[in-house]
Specification:
Helix content: over 70%
Largest sheet: none
Shape: elongated
Oligomer: single chain
Number of helices: 3
Radius of gyration: 22 Å
Amino acid sequence: MPDTTRSASADFSFGKMVAYALGAATGVIIVAAIIILFVAQVSPTAALIVAFVAVVAVVAVIALVSRRMMAGVQTEIDERRARAAAHDEETGN
């Protein structure tokens, strides 16, 4: 009976990762824009600070989403390397 489980690397898609990361970043930008619009009425300097924080948040969200999506693939890579190293030790290579 063939093995029907798919590996994490077989299910991974760079396009899907990019879409999720940019989608999350777009969400941060939309929320930040709304906050900036309200804060700008009170203090333009505070709105500028919020904008800078939003830029940092966008970068952080993209990194977080990408890292979370790559975690399964990285785990599989580490397991395969460990199996290959164990096999090499057994065969004396």
